[in-house]
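FW: tagging you since you asked about this chain on Friday. Here's the raw sequence from the shared folder, copied in full. Didn't touch anything.
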Amino acid sequence: MKVSSIILTLFTSVLWTGLQERSQAAALPPSPELLPENTWAFISIPNTEHAKEQLSKGMLQLWMAPPMQPFREHVETQINERFLTLLKKEAGIDLAQWNLLAKGQTTLALIPGKDSLQIKPLLLIDSGSEVGPMNELTEKLTSVLTEKGQPFVRETIEGISMIHIPLPLEGTLLDPSNEEGAQGLCVAQAESTLLVTTSRVTLQQIMRRAGGQSAGRTLSENPRFQMMAKDHFQGSLIHGWIQFSPILQAIKKEVARNFPPPDTANNPLAALIPTPQAILGSLHLEALEGFGFAISSNDDAQLFDLVIQSPESTRNRGLLGLIQIEASDATPPAFVTEEVASFQRIRIDGKKLWLSLEGLVAEISPQMAEVVKMSMSFLGKDRDPAFDFRKSFIDHLGDDFIVVQWPPKSIEMQDLISPPQLFLIGSSHPEILSNAFIAASGLLPTQEGAFRERAFLGRTIYSITVPVSSQDDENQAPMGLHFAPAGRHVAISTDAEVLEDYLRGKASGEAALSKNVAFDRALKTLGSSDSGYLHYQNPIASTRLFYEQARKDPQKLLSQWIDRTASGPFSDTFLEVFDFKKLPPFDVVESYLTFTLTGNISDQKALKLRSVAPNPPALK
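HL: got it, structure written out here
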Protein backbone atom coordinates (compact mmCIF):
# COMPACT_ATOMS: atom_id res chain seq x y z
CA MET A 1 0.00 0.00 0.00
CA LYS A 2 1.42 3.42 -0.94
CA VAL A 3 2.46 5.82 1.82
CA SER A 4 0.36 8.62 0.30
CA SER A 5 -2.77 6.45 0.35
CA ILE A 6 -2.19 5.56 3.99
CA ILE A 7 -1.82 9.18 5.00
CA LEU A 8 -4.91 10.27 3.06
CA THR A 9 -6.98 7.47 4.54
CA LEU A 10 -5.71 8.30 7.99
CA PHE A 11 -6.75 11.95 7.83
CA THR A 12 -10.16 11.08 6.46
CA SER A 13 -10.79 8.66 9.31
CA VAL A 14 -9.75 11.16 11.94
CA LEU A 15 -11.82 13.97 10.48
CA TRP A 16 -14.95 11.85 10.08
CA THR A 17 -14.79 10.50 13.61
CA GLY A 18 -14.17 13.94 15.09
CA LEU A 19 -17.30 15.27 13.40
CA GLN A 20 -19.58 12.35 14.23
CA GLU A 21 -19.62 12.70 18.01
CA ARG A 22 -18.44 15.83 19.78
CA SER A 23 -17.53 16.53 23.35
CA GLN A 24 -15.99 19.46 25.19
CA ALA A 25 -12.21 19.39 25.61
CA ALA A 26 -9.48 21.86 26.44
CA ALA A 27 -6.91 22.88 23.83
CA LEU A 28 -3.19 22.31 24.19
CA PRO A 29 -0.90 25.29 24.92
CA PRO A 30 0.28 27.41 21.94
CA SER A 31 2.73 25.56 19.68
CA PRO A 32 5.84 27.61 20.70
CA GLU A 33 5.36 26.22 24.23
CA LEU A 34 5.27 22.65 22.87
CA LEU A 35 8.00 22.68 20.20
CA PRO A 36 11.68 22.21 21.12
CA GLU A 37 14.04 25.18 21.14
CA ASN A 38 16.02 23.83 18.18
CA THR A 39 12.98 23.61 15.85
CA TRP A 40 14.18 24.41 12.36
CA ALA A 41 10.98 25.88 10.96
CA PHE A 42 7.28 26.16 11.59
CA ILE A 43 4.13 27.73 10.18
CA SER A 44 1.27 28.37 12.55
CA ILE A 45 -2.30 29.66 12.48
CA PRO A 46 -3.07 30.51 16.12
CA ASN A 47 -6.85 30.60 15.56
CA THR A 48 -7.83 28.93 12.30
CA GLU A 49 -11.52 29.82 12.42
CA HIS A 50 -10.73 33.50 13.03
CA ALA A 51 -8.07 33.52 10.31
CA LYS A 52 -10.48 32.07 7.75
CA GLU A 53 -13.01 34.74 8.63
CA GLN A 54 -10.51 37.60 8.31
CA LEU A 55 -8.82 36.35 5.16
CA SER A 56 -12.19 35.97 3.46
CA LYS A 57 -12.19 39.76 3.38
CA GLY A 58 -9.97 41.81 1.10
CA MET A 59 -9.31 40.50 -2.40
CA LEU A 60 -10.43 36.96 -1.44
CA GLN A 61 -13.94 38.34 -1.09
CA LEU A 62 -14.05 38.69 -4.87
CA TRP A 63 -14.71 34.96 -5.18
CA MET A 64 -17.87 35.25 -3.06
CA ALA A 65 -19.10 38.49 -4.64
CA PRO A 66 -22.66 38.26 -6.07
CA PRO A 67 -21.57 39.11 -9.65
CA MET A 68 -19.22 36.10 -9.54
CA GLN A 69 -21.98 33.63 -8.62
CA PRO A 70 -22.53 32.05 -12.09
CA PHE A 71 -18.81 31.52 -12.65
CA ARG A 72 -18.17 30.40 -9.05
CA GLU A 73 -21.01 27.87 -8.95
CA HIS A 74 -19.97 26.41 -12.31
CA VAL A 75 -16.35 25.97 -11.21
CA GLU A 76 -17.31 24.46 -7.86
CA THR A 77 -19.72 22.01 -9.53
CA GLN A 78 -17.13 20.97 -12.11
CA ILE A 79 -14.39 20.43 -9.53
CA ASN A 80 -16.73 18.48 -7.28
CA GLU A 81 -17.97 16.22 -10.09
CA ARG A 82 -14.62 15.69 -11.82
CA PHE A 83 -12.19 15.51 -8.90
CA LEU A 84 -13.59 15.65 -5.36
CA THR A 85 -16.19 12.93 -5.84
CA LEU A 86 -13.50 10.66 -7.30
CA LEU A 87 -11.12 11.55 -4.47
CA LYS A 88 -13.75 10.67 -1.89
CA LYS A 89 -14.61 7.41 -3.65
CA GLU A 90 -11.04 6.21 -4.20
CA ALA A 91 -9.26 7.54 -1.10
CA GLY A 92 -12.08 8.44 1.25
CA ILE A 93 -11.08 12.10 1.36
CA ASP A 94 -13.81 14.66 2.02
CA LEU A 95 -12.27 18.14 1.95
CA ALA A 96 -15.41 19.71 3.38
CA GLN A 97 -14.93 17.68 6.56
CA TRP A 98 -11.30 18.82 6.73
CA ASN A 99 -12.36 22.44 6.50
CA LEU A 100 -14.85 22.00 9.34
CA LEU A 101 -12.41 20.28 11.68
CA ALA A 102 -9.67 22.94 11.84
CA LYS A 103 -10.86 25.65 14.24
CA GLY A 104 -8.19 26.27 16.85
CA GLN A 105 -4.45 26.38 16.26
CA THR A 106 -2.96 24.64 13.21
CA THR A 107 0.80 24.15 13.07
CA LEU A 108 3.29 22.39 10.82
CA ALA A 109 6.82 22.15 12.25
CA LEU A 110 10.14 20.66 11.14
CA ILE A 111 12.25 19.36 14.02
CA PRO A 112 15.85 18.25 13.38
CA GLY A 113 16.98 14.67 13.90
CA LYS A 114 20.44 13.37 14.74
CA ASP A 115 21.71 13.33 11.15
CA SER A 116 22.66 16.60 9.47
CA LEU A 117 19.64 17.00 7.25
CA GLN A 118 17.23 14.62 8.95
CA ILE A 119 13.89 16.11 9.91
CA LYS A 120 10.96 15.00 12.02
CA PRO A 121 7.79 16.73 10.84
CA LEU A 122 4.96 17.45 13.24
CA LEU A 123 1.40 18.35 12.25
CA LEU A 124 -0.84 19.77 14.95
CA ILE A 125 -4.53 20.52 14.33
CA ASP A 126 -6.88 21.74 17.02
CA SER A 127 -10.63 21.43 16.50
CA GLY A 128 -11.46 23.99 19.17
CA SER A 129 -13.57 22.54 21.97
CA GLU A 130 -15.41 19.98 19.83
CA VAL A 131 -13.85 16.55 19.40
CA GLY A 132 -15.01 12.94 19.28
CA PRO A 133 -14.01 10.43 21.98
CA MET A 134 -10.61 8.82 21.52
CA ASN A 135 -11.92 5.29 21.55
CA GLU A 136 -14.27 5.92 18.59
CA LEU A 137 -11.51 7.68 16.67
CA THR A 138 -9.21 4.72 17.24
CA GLU A 139 -11.88 2.23 16.26
CA LYS A 140 -12.67 4.11 13.05
CA LEU A 141 -9.01 4.47 12.12
CA THR A 142 -8.10 0.87 12.90
CA SER A 143 -11.07 -0.47 10.96
CA VAL A 144 -10.03 1.49 7.86
CA LEU A 145 -6.40 0.36 8.17
CA THR A 146 -7.54 -3.23 8.63
CA GLU A 147 -9.71 -2.97 5.53
CA LYS A 148 -6.73 -1.64 3.55
CA GLY A 149 -4.44 -4.39 4.83
CA GLN A 150 -2.07 -1.95 6.53
CA PRO A 151 -0.41 -3.21 9.77
CA PHE A 152 -0.62 -0.96 12.85
CA VAL A 153 0.07 -1.08 16.57
CA ARG A 154 -1.91 0.46 19.42
CA GLU A 155 0.24 2.09 22.07
CA THR A 156 -0.03 4.40 25.05
CA ILE A 157 2.42 7.27 25.34
CA GLU A 158 2.38 9.79 28.17
CA GLY A 159 -1.13 8.72 29.07
CA ILE A 160 -2.72 9.15 25.63
CA SER A 161 -3.68 6.59 23.05
CA MET A 162 -1.51 6.41 19.95
CA ILE A 163 -1.58 4.41 16.75
CA HIS A 164 1.76 3.56 15.14
CA ILE A 165 1.61 2.74 11.44
CA PRO A 166 4.84 1.19 10.10
CA LEU A 167 5.96 2.85 6.88
CA PRO A 168 9.11 2.41 4.74
CA LEU A 169 11.12 5.56 5.46
CA GLU A 170 14.64 4.19 4.94
CA GLY A 171 16.93 6.55 3.09
CA THR A 172 14.56 9.51 3.24
CA LEU A 173 14.81 12.77 5.14
CA LEU A 174 12.10 11.40 7.42
CA ASP A 175 14.11 8.29 8.37
CA PRO A 176 14.34 8.24 12.20
CA SER A 177 16.19 4.91 12.40
CA ASN A 178 19.40 6.48 13.74
CA GLU A 179 17.45 7.82 16.68
CA GLU A 180 14.45 5.72 17.49
CA GLY A 181 14.46 2.36 15.74
CA ALA A 182 10.92 1.69 14.47
CA GLN A 183 9.83 3.66 11.43
CA GLY A 184 6.39 4.89 10.58
CA LEU A 185 3.65 7.36 11.33
CA CYS A 186 2.55 8.18 14.89
CA VAL A 187 -1.01 9.44 15.27
CA ALA A 188 -2.42 10.63 18.57
CA GLN A 189 -5.19 12.80 19.91
CA ALA A 190 -4.65 14.88 23.04
CA GLU A 191 -7.61 16.82 24.33
CA SER A 192 -9.00 18.58 21.25
CA THR A 193 -5.75 18.32 19.27
CA LEU A 194 -4.71 15.88 16.58
CA LEU A 195 -0.95 15.20 16.41
CA VAL A 196 0.81 13.43 13.54
CA THR A 197 4.57 12.85 13.40
CA THR A 198 7.19 10.28 12.41
CA SER A 199 8.90 10.36 15.81
CA ARG A 200 7.82 8.73 19.07
CA VAL A 201 10.35 10.81 21.00
CA THR A 202 8.95 14.04 19.55
CA LEU A 203 5.40 13.05 20.47
CA GLN A 204 6.48 12.06 23.97
CA GLN A 205 8.26 15.38 24.54
CA ILE A 206 5.28 17.36 23.21
CA MET A 207 2.92 15.64 25.64
CA ARG A 208 5.29 16.10 28.58
CA ARG A 209 5.44 19.84 27.90
CA ALA A 210 1.67 19.95 27.51
CA GLY A 211 1.38 18.37 30.94
CA GLY A 212 3.70 20.89 32.52
CA GLN A 213 6.65 18.48 32.81
CA SER A 214 10.25 19.26 31.87
CA ALA A 215 11.27 18.04 28.42
CA GLY A 216 14.03 20.46 27.46
CA ARG A 217 13.83 24.11 26.52
CA THR A 218 10.97 25.16 24.24
CA LEU A 219 10.81 27.38 21.20
CA SER A 220 9.14 30.07 23.32
CA GLU A 221 12.41 30.27 25.31
CA ASN A 222 14.55 30.81 22.20
CA PRO A 223 15.82 34.47 22.29
CA ARG A 224 15.69 34.85 18.50
CA PHE A 225 12.18 33.52 18.35
CA GLN A 226 11.14 35.74 21.26
CA MET A 227 12.33 38.80 19.36
CA MET A 228 10.43 37.78 16.24
CA ALA A 229 7.26 36.95 18.16
CA LYS A 230 7.32 40.21 20.11
CA ASP A 231 7.81 42.40 17.03
CA HIS A 232 5.63 40.62 14.45
CA PHE A 233 3.60 37.63 15.65
CA GLN A 234 1.34 39.24 18.24
CA GLY A 235 -2.16 39.42 16.85
CA SER A 236 -1.19 37.85 13.51
CA LEU A 237 -3.51 35.55 11.59
CA ILE A 238 -0.74 33.37 10.17
CA HIS A 239 2.97 33.44 10.91
CA GLY A 240 6.06 31.38 10.28
CA TRP A 241 9.70 31.28 11.25
CA ILE A 242 12.89 29.59 10.05
CA GLN A 243 15.80 29.28 12.46
CA PHE A 244 18.61 29.51 9.96
CA SER A 245 21.76 29.08 12.08
CA PRO A 246 21.39 25.32 12.75
CA ILE A 247 20.28 24.76 9.15
CA LEU A 248 23.44 26.49 7.92
CA GLN A 249 25.58 24.30 10.15
CA ALA A 250 23.86 21.20 8.76
CA ILE A 251 24.42 22.43 5.18
CA LYS A 252 28.12 23.07 5.86
CA LYS A 253 28.47 19.60 7.35
CA GLU A 254 26.89 18.01 4.30
CA VAL A 255 29.05 20.09 1.94
CA ALA A 256 32.21 19.03 3.77
CA ARG A 257 31.10 15.40 3.60
CA ASN A 258 30.22 15.39 -0.10
CA PHE A 259 32.73 17.86 -1.61
CA PRO A 260 36.36 17.09 -0.73
CA PRO A 261 39.03 19.76 -1.39
CA PRO A 262 40.13 19.98 -5.07
CA ASP A 263 43.19 18.03 -6.15
CA THR A 264 45.32 20.97 -7.32
CA ALA A 265 48.50 18.85 -7.37
CA ASN A 266 47.26 16.70 -10.26
CA ASN A 267 44.93 19.31 -11.77
CA PRO A 268 46.22 22.90 -11.45
CA LEU A 269 43.11 24.24 -13.21
CA ALA A 270 40.99 23.01 -10.31
CA ALA A 271 42.13 26.07 -8.36
CA LEU A 272 40.17 28.25 -10.80
CA ILE A 273 36.86 26.56 -9.98
CA PRO A 274 35.18 27.92 -6.83
CA THR A 275 34.41 25.20 -4.29
CA PRO A 276 31.07 25.04 -2.44
CA GLN A 277 33.03 25.69 0.78
CA ALA A 278 34.51 28.88 -0.68
CA ILE A 279 31.13 30.08 -1.91
CA LEU A 280 29.46 29.45 1.45
CA GLY A 281 32.29 31.14 3.32
CA SER A 282 32.26 34.21 1.09
CA LEU A 283 28.52 34.73 1.41
CA HIS A 284 28.90 35.04 5.22
CA LEU A 285 25.52 33.49 5.77
CA GLU A 286 26.17 33.27 9.51
CA ALA A 287 24.84 36.84 9.60
CA LEU A 288 21.41 35.40 8.76
CA GLU A 289 19.91 34.31 12.07
CA GLY A 290 16.36 33.64 10.96
CA PHE A 291 13.57 34.35 8.51
CA GLY A 292 9.98 35.12 9.43
CA PHE A 293 6.69 36.25 8.02
CA ALA A 294 3.37 37.34 9.47
CA ILE A 295 -0.04 38.03 7.96
CA SER A 296 -2.38 40.29 9.91
CA SER A 297 -5.32 42.60 9.31
CA ASN A 298 -7.05 45.64 10.69
CA ASP A 299 -10.23 47.53 9.82
CA ASP A 300 -8.64 49.17 6.79
CA ALA A 301 -6.16 46.72 5.28
CA GLN A 302 -4.41 43.38 5.28
CA LEU A 303 -0.71 43.41 6.14
CA PHE A 304 2.17 41.08 5.29
CA ASP A 305 5.56 41.35 7.01
CA LEU A 306 8.70 39.64 5.68
CA VAL A 307 11.68 39.65 8.06
CA ILE A 308 15.35 38.67 7.84
CA GLN A 309 16.80 38.55 11.33
CA SER A 310 20.29 40.02 11.16
CA PRO A 311 21.85 42.64 13.47
CA GLU A 312 22.88 45.76 11.59
CA SER A 313 26.52 45.31 12.64
CA THR A 314 26.74 42.01 10.71
CA ARG A 315 25.32 43.25 7.38
CA ASN A 316 28.48 44.88 6.04
CA ARG A 317 29.86 41.99 4.00
CA GLY A 318 28.90 38.89 2.07
CA LEU A 319 25.40 38.52 0.70
CA LEU A 320 23.83 41.08 3.05
CA GLY A 321 26.60 43.53 2.18
CA LEU A 322 24.86 43.91 -1.18
CA ILE A 323 21.62 45.08 0.47
CA GLN A 324 22.49 48.49 1.86
CA ILE A 325 19.29 50.50 1.37
CA GLU A 326 19.69 54.18 2.17
CA ALA A 327 17.12 56.21 4.10
CA SER A 328 16.03 58.46 1.22
CA ASP A 329 12.84 59.47 -0.55
CA ALA A 330 11.31 56.58 -2.51
CA THR A 331 7.95 58.09 -3.52
CA PRO A 332 6.84 57.93 -7.17
CA PRO A 333 8.00 60.85 -9.34
CA ALA A 334 5.29 63.06 -10.88
CA PHE A 335 5.31 61.23 -14.24
CA VAL A 336 4.17 57.98 -12.56
CA THR A 337 0.37 58.09 -12.84
CA GLU A 338 -2.45 56.04 -11.35
CA GLU A 339 -2.66 54.04 -14.59
CA VAL A 340 0.66 52.23 -14.13
CA ALA A 341 0.60 48.48 -13.47
CA SER A 342 3.56 48.65 -11.10
CA PHE A 343 6.20 51.00 -9.75
CA GLN A 344 9.37 50.18 -7.87
CA ARG A 345 12.04 52.49 -6.46
CA ILE A 346 15.09 51.63 -4.39
CA ARG A 347 17.69 54.00 -2.99
CA ILE A 348 20.98 52.17 -2.89
CA ASP A 349 24.48 53.47 -3.64
CA GLY A 350 25.30 51.96 -7.03
CA LYS A 351 29.06 52.43 -6.69
CA LYS A 352 29.17 50.75 -3.28
CA LEU A 353 26.96 47.95 -4.59
CA TRP A 354 29.26 47.27 -7.53
CA LEU A 355 32.41 47.36 -5.41
CA SER A 356 30.78 45.04 -2.85
CA LEU A 357 29.86 42.64 -5.65
CA GLU A 358 33.42 42.70 -6.95
CA GLY A 359 34.70 42.05 -3.44
CA LEU A 360 32.34 39.10 -3.07
CA VAL A 361 33.50 37.59 -6.37
CA ALA A 362 37.15 38.13 -5.37
CA GLU A 363 36.58 36.36 -2.06
CA ILE A 364 34.99 33.40 -3.84
CA SER A 365 37.63 33.23 -6.58
CA PRO A 366 40.44 35.82 -6.89
CA GLN A 367 41.26 34.43 -10.34
CA MET A 368 37.71 34.93 -11.56
CA ALA A 369 37.68 38.49 -10.22
CA GLU A 370 40.86 39.31 -12.16
CA VAL A 371 39.37 37.91 -15.36
CA VAL A 372 36.28 40.11 -14.91
CA LYS A 373 38.39 43.23 -14.30
CA MET A 374 40.57 42.50 -17.31
CA SER A 375 37.53 42.01 -19.54
CA MET A 376 36.05 45.30 -18.36
CA SER A 377 39.28 47.13 -19.12
CA PHE A 378 38.89 46.39 -22.86
CA LEU A 379 35.33 47.74 -23.12
CA GLY A 380 35.05 50.86 -25.28
CA LYS A 381 38.63 50.72 -26.53
CA ASP A 382 37.38 50.10 -30.09
CA ARG A 383 35.71 53.55 -30.07
CA ASP A 384 38.26 55.41 -27.93
CA PRO A 385 41.65 53.88 -26.99
CA ALA A 386 41.81 56.16 -23.95
CA PHE A 387 38.35 55.17 -22.68
CA ASP A 388 38.25 53.92 -19.04
CA PHE A 389 35.10 51.85 -18.57
CA ARG A 390 35.47 51.28 -14.84
CA LYS A 391 35.85 54.98 -14.16
CA SER A 392 32.97 55.96 -16.47
CA PHE A 393 30.63 53.28 -15.16
CA ILE A 394 31.36 52.68 -11.48
CA ASP A 395 32.23 56.26 -10.51
CA HIS A 396 29.03 57.61 -12.03
CA LEU A 397 26.45 55.16 -10.71
CA GLY A 398 24.01 57.05 -8.50
CA ASP A 399 21.77 56.00 -5.61
CA ASP A 400 18.36 56.02 -7.29
CA PHE A 401 16.93 53.08 -9.28
CA ILE A 402 13.35 53.17 -10.63
CA VAL A 403 11.28 50.65 -12.60
CA VAL A 404 7.85 51.56 -13.99
CA GLN A 405 5.59 49.13 -15.85
CA TRP A 406 2.41 49.84 -17.79
CA PRO A 407 -0.36 47.40 -18.80
CA PRO A 408 0.37 45.23 -21.86
CA LYS A 409 -0.65 46.68 -25.21
CA SER A 410 -2.42 43.53 -26.39
CA ILE A 411 -3.02 39.89 -25.48
CA GLU A 412 -0.33 38.70 -27.87
CA MET A 413 2.24 36.57 -26.12
CA GLN A 414 5.12 38.97 -26.70
CA ASP A 415 3.14 41.88 -25.26
CA LEU A 416 2.05 39.86 -22.22
CA ILE A 417 5.61 38.73 -21.49
CA SER A 418 7.20 42.13 -22.17
CA PRO A 419 4.77 44.91 -21.27
CA PRO A 420 5.95 48.53 -21.65
CA GLN A 421 8.62 49.29 -19.04
CA LEU A 422 10.91 52.17 -18.17
CA PHE A 423 14.12 51.87 -16.13
CA LEU A 424 15.79 54.90 -14.57
CA ILE A 425 19.33 54.68 -13.22
CA GLY A 426 20.42 57.63 -11.11
CA SER A 427 23.71 59.34 -11.90
CA SER A 428 25.51 62.58 -11.13
CA HIS A 429 26.69 62.64 -14.77
CA PRO A 430 24.20 60.64 -16.87
CA GLU A 431 25.97 61.53 -20.13
CA ILE A 432 29.17 59.87 -18.96
CA LEU A 433 27.22 56.84 -17.66
CA SER A 434 25.51 56.58 -21.07
CA ASN A 435 28.94 56.37 -22.71
CA ALA A 436 29.72 53.46 -20.40
CA PHE A 437 26.52 51.72 -21.55
CA ILE A 438 27.56 52.26 -25.16
CA ALA A 439 30.91 50.65 -24.40
CA ALA A 440 29.21 47.74 -22.61
CA SER A 441 27.09 47.11 -25.70
CA GLY A 442 30.21 45.52 -27.16
CA LEU A 443 29.39 42.47 -25.05
CA LEU A 444 26.02 42.00 -26.78
CA PRO A 445 25.63 39.75 -29.85
CA THR A 446 24.88 42.63 -32.21
CA GLN A 447 25.53 42.91 -35.94
CA GLU A 448 27.21 45.68 -37.88
CA GLY A 449 25.02 48.78 -37.88
CA ALA A 450 23.06 47.59 -34.86
CA PHE A 451 24.09 50.65 -32.83
CA ARG A 452 22.70 54.03 -33.76
CA GLU A 453 21.93 57.40 -32.22
CA ARG A 454 19.43 60.12 -33.03
CA ALA A 455 18.42 63.53 -31.78
CA PHE A 456 15.12 63.94 -29.96
CA LEU A 457 13.86 67.18 -28.36
CA GLY A 458 17.38 68.42 -27.75
CA ARG A 459 18.57 65.08 -26.31
CA THR A 460 20.30 62.07 -27.83
CA ILE A 461 18.63 58.66 -27.89
CA TYR A 462 20.96 55.69 -28.29
CA SER A 463 19.57 52.44 -29.67
CA ILE A 464 21.04 48.96 -29.84
CA THR A 465 19.41 46.16 -31.82
CA VAL A 466 19.94 42.66 -30.42
CA PRO A 467 18.93 39.55 -32.43
CA VAL A 468 16.55 37.27 -30.53
CA SER A 469 17.15 33.56 -30.85
CA SER A 470 13.85 31.68 -30.84
CA GLN A 471 13.23 28.03 -31.70
CA ASP A 472 9.51 28.71 -32.07
CA ASP A 473 9.68 31.64 -34.49
CA GLU A 474 12.66 32.11 -36.76
CA ASN A 475 11.15 35.36 -38.02
CA GLN A 476 10.80 36.93 -34.58
CA ALA A 477 11.81 40.59 -34.68
CA PRO A 478 15.06 41.59 -32.96
CA MET A 479 14.86 43.35 -29.62
CA GLY A 480 15.68 47.02 -29.37
CA LEU A 481 17.28 48.62 -26.34
CA HIS A 482 16.91 52.40 -26.19
CA PHE A 483 18.45 54.76 -23.63
CA ALA A 484 19.10 58.45 -23.13
CA PRO A 485 20.51 60.73 -20.42
CA ALA A 486 17.74 62.82 -18.87
CA GLY A 487 18.01 65.01 -15.79
CA ARG A 488 19.72 63.04 -13.01
CA HIS A 489 19.04 59.64 -14.59
CA VAL A 490 19.75 57.47 -17.57
CA ALA A 491 16.38 56.36 -18.93
CA ILE A 492 16.23 52.90 -20.53
CA SER A 493 13.43 51.01 -22.29
CA THR A 494 12.90 48.29 -24.87
CA ASP A 495 10.00 50.38 -26.20
CA ALA A 496 11.03 53.53 -28.06
CA GLU A 497 7.60 55.15 -27.54
CA VAL A 498 7.84 54.72 -23.76
CA LEU A 499 11.22 56.40 -23.71
CA GLU A 500 10.04 59.24 -25.94
CA ASP A 501 6.95 59.83 -23.77
CA TYR A 502 9.19 60.11 -20.72
CA LEU A 503 11.56 62.52 -22.44
CA ARG A 504 8.77 64.80 -23.59
CA GLY A 505 7.21 64.78 -20.10
CA LYS A 506 3.91 63.31 -21.24
CA ALA A 507 1.15 62.70 -18.61
CA SER A 508 2.97 64.30 -15.71
CA GLY A 509 1.15 66.07 -12.90
CA GLU A 510 -2.63 65.75 -12.83
CA ALA A 511 -3.13 62.02 -12.18
CA ALA A 512 0.13 61.46 -10.30
CA LEU A 513 0.13 58.29 -8.20
CA SER A 514 1.73 60.12 -5.28
CA LYS A 515 -1.37 62.36 -5.05
CA ASN A 516 -3.79 59.45 -4.83
CA VAL A 517 -5.64 59.47 -1.48
CA ALA A 518 -5.65 55.68 -1.04
CA PHE A 519 -1.96 55.49 -1.95
CA ASP A 520 -1.12 58.21 0.58
CA ARG A 521 -3.11 56.42 3.30
CA ALA A 522 -1.27 53.15 2.60
CA LEU A 523 2.05 54.99 2.63
CA LYS A 524 1.26 56.38 6.09
CA THR A 525 0.48 52.84 7.26
CA LEU A 526 4.01 51.87 6.24
CA GLY A 527 5.33 54.75 8.32
CA SER A 528 7.58 56.79 6.06
CA SER A 529 8.28 57.65 2.43
CA ASP A 530 11.97 58.08 3.25
CA SER A 531 12.63 54.39 3.92
CA GLY A 532 14.57 53.94 0.67
CA TYR A 533 12.28 51.36 -0.94
CA LEU A 534 8.73 51.28 -2.30
CA HIS A 535 6.94 48.79 -4.57
CA TYR A 536 3.44 49.47 -5.88
CA GLN A 537 1.42 46.74 -7.63
CA ASN A 538 -1.95 47.52 -9.24
CA PRO A 539 -3.90 44.44 -10.43
CA ILE A 540 -6.67 46.64 -11.83
CA ALA A 541 -4.30 48.03 -14.46
CA SER A 542 -2.37 44.83 -15.06
CA THR A 543 -5.26 42.35 -15.41
CA ARG A 544 -8.04 44.27 -17.18
CA LEU A 545 -6.96 43.33 -20.72
CA PHE A 546 -6.22 39.73 -19.76
CA TYR A 547 -9.57 39.40 -17.93
CA GLU A 548 -11.69 40.77 -20.75
CA GLN A 549 -9.94 38.61 -23.33
CA ALA A 550 -10.58 35.55 -21.15
CA ARG A 551 -14.30 36.39 -21.21
CA LYS A 552 -14.47 36.94 -24.96
CA ASP A 553 -12.12 34.30 -26.40
CA PRO A 554 -10.58 32.05 -23.71
CA GLN A 555 -9.45 29.50 -26.30
CA LYS A 556 -7.25 32.03 -28.08
CA LEU A 557 -5.78 33.28 -24.82
CA LEU A 558 -5.05 29.78 -23.53
CA SER A 559 -3.46 28.68 -26.80
CA GLN A 560 -0.72 31.27 -26.28
CA TRP A 561 0.24 29.85 -22.89
CA ILE A 562 0.26 26.15 -23.79
CA ASP A 563 3.13 24.60 -25.70
CA ARG A 564 2.20 23.90 -29.30
CA THR A 565 3.00 20.23 -28.83
CA ALA A 566 0.63 19.93 -25.85
CA SER A 567 -2.39 17.70 -26.30
CA GLY A 568 -5.81 19.19 -26.85
CA PRO A 569 -7.64 17.33 -24.03
CA PHE A 570 -5.95 19.38 -21.30
CA SER A 571 -7.02 22.63 -22.93
CA ASP A 572 -10.57 21.37 -23.41
CA THR A 573 -10.87 20.13 -19.82
CA PHE A 574 -9.45 23.33 -18.39
CA LEU A 575 -11.93 25.50 -20.27
CA GLU A 576 -14.81 23.20 -19.35
CA VAL A 577 -13.97 23.58 -15.66
CA PHE A 578 -13.19 27.29 -15.84
CA ASP A 579 -15.87 28.68 -18.14
CA PHE A 580 -14.52 32.23 -18.32
CA LYS A 581 -17.44 33.31 -20.49
CA LYS A 582 -19.56 33.22 -17.32
CA LEU A 583 -17.42 35.95 -15.74
CA PRO A 584 -19.05 39.35 -15.26
CA PRO A 585 -17.56 42.40 -17.05
CA PHE A 586 -14.38 43.72 -15.50
CA ASP A 587 -16.02 47.03 -14.59
CA VAL A 588 -18.41 45.10 -12.33
CA VAL A 589 -15.66 43.36 -10.32
CA GLU A 590 -13.12 46.20 -10.37
CA SER A 591 -14.35 47.53 -7.01
CA TYR A 592 -13.43 44.21 -5.40
CA LEU A 593 -9.74 44.61 -6.34
CA THR A 594 -7.11 46.65 -4.56
CA PHE A 595 -3.48 47.60 -4.93
CA THR A 596 -0.55 46.49 -2.78
CA LEU A 597 2.15 48.83 -1.47
CA THR A 598 5.38 47.40 -0.04
CA GLY A 599 7.99 49.40 1.85
CA ASN A 600 11.18 49.04 3.82
CA ILE A 601 10.72 49.09 7.61
CA SER A 602 14.15 47.70 8.57
CA ASP A 603 15.74 48.52 11.91
CA GLN A 604 18.92 47.63 13.80
CA LYS A 605 17.64 44.13 14.56
CA ALA A 606 16.46 42.98 11.15
CA LEU A 607 15.80 43.69 7.49
CA LYS A 608 12.05 44.07 7.08
CA LEU A 609 9.55 44.60 4.32
CA ARG A 610 5.87 45.32 4.96
CA SER A 611 3.10 45.04 2.36
CA VAL A 612 -0.21 46.86 2.77
CA ALA A 613 -3.30 45.82 0.80
CA PRO A 614 -6.14 48.27 1.56
CA ASN A 615 -9.62 46.80 1.72
CA PRO A 616 -11.25 47.12 -1.72
CA PRO A 617 -13.90 49.85 -2.11
CA ALA A 618 -16.68 47.27 -2.42
CA LEU A 619 -15.88 45.91 1.05
CA LYS A 620 -15.80 49.19 2.95
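FW: The mean pLDDT is 83.
HL: agreed, and The two ends are 52 Å apart (CA to CA).
FW: great, closing this out.
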